[in-house]
């Protein structure tokens, strides 16, 4: 930018008491700048558009003109400076690069968050019967079975899960002969697998009391019955 100029209030030549010599002296001292368009319009131009350049010790460096102009001391917060549109400070370097990089980083972080936090399945695999404890009640012709089963629970998520409960039941010939429910079992870490053993107490009685004769038959050393676990 060039020199900083301040727009003074409108006044006339007669009010200021300027004559031709005074105007000439001020112009030589660099205090008043105006364009003259003839002898008749000279005084009117100066009175309507007076621009004064402040120089000397009573001025400070203009904060918006890169040190090339001066403004009156004490008026730094009162004057308005105009910055050209072509000023490089209005167009920071590598703006497009920074915006593009920011968008890419945001998309990458969003994609990673969705990938790691998206819920995945929890697989439950029934391994089989681990052990069976058999007991009889001769007088009531009742068979008691404590069946211990094994499950493999696999966590396919990238965060820990908690197995809140397991519900199991045993069926024999479409009849439920035993139920069990386990609460607050265990925590499984990310991409981890745990094996869980649980026991279901089972009773065979009443209309199935004929199984008591089969299970206590002495001629058979190994007694096998088929039950379904759920």
Explain how this protein is built.
- A hairpin with a 2-residue loop joins strand 8 and strand 9 (175-188).
- The strands form four sheets. A three-stranded antiparallel β-sheet has the order 1-3-2. The protein has a three-stranded antiparallel β-sheet with strand order 6-7-10. It has a three-stranded antiparallel β-sheet with strand order 9-8-11, with no helix packed on it.
- The protein is an alpha+beta fold and 230 residues long.
- The protein is built from five helices and eleven strands, in the order βααβαβββαβββββαβ.
- It is rod-shaped.
- The protein starts with 5 loop residues before the first strand and ends with a strand.
- Percent helix: 10-25%
Low-confidence stretches: 1-51
What amount of the residues lies in strands?
Answer: 35-45%
Q: Give the H and E element order.
A: EHHEHEEEHEEEEEHE
What average pLDDT do the residues reach?
Answer: 74
Rg of Cα set: 49 Å
From the spread of the alpha carbons, the general shape counts as rod-shaped
Derived structural class: alpha+beta
- The main sheet orders its strands as 1-3-2
Number of strands: 11
InterPro entries: TMEM106, TMEM106_C, TMEM106_N
Protein name: Transmembrane protein 106B
Membrane topology: Single-pass type II membrane protein
Main location: membrane
């Amino acid at each position: 930018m060039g020199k900083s100029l301040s727009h003074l209030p409108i006044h006339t030549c007669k009010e200021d008491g300027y004559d031709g010599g005074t105007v000439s002296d001020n112009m030589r001292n660099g205090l008043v700048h105006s364009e003259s368009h003839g002898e008749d319009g000279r005084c009117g131009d100066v009175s309507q558009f007076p621009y004064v350049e402040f120089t000397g010790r009573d001025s400070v460096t203009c904060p918006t003109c890169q040190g090339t102009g001066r403004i009156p001391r004490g008026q730094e917060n009162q004057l308005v400076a105009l910055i050209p549109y072509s000023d490089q400070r209005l167009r920071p370097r590598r703006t497009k690069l920074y915006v593009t990089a920011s968008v890419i980083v945001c998309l990458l972080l969003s994609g990673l968050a969705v990938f790691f936090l998206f819920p995945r399945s929890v697989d439950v695999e029934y391994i089989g019967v681990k052990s069976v404890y058999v007991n009889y009640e001769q007088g009531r012709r009742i068979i008691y079975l404590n069946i211990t089963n094994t499950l493999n629970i696999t966590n396919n998520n990238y965060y820990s899960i908690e197995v809140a409960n397991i519900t199991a039941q045993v069926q024999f010939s479409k009849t439920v002969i035993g139920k069990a429910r386990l609460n607050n079992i265990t925590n499984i870490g990310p991409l981890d697998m745990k094996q869980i053993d649980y026991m279901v107490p089972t009773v065979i009685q009443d209309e199935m009391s004929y199984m008591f004769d089969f299970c206590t038959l002495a001629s058979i050393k190994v007694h096998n019955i088929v039950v379904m676990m759920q």
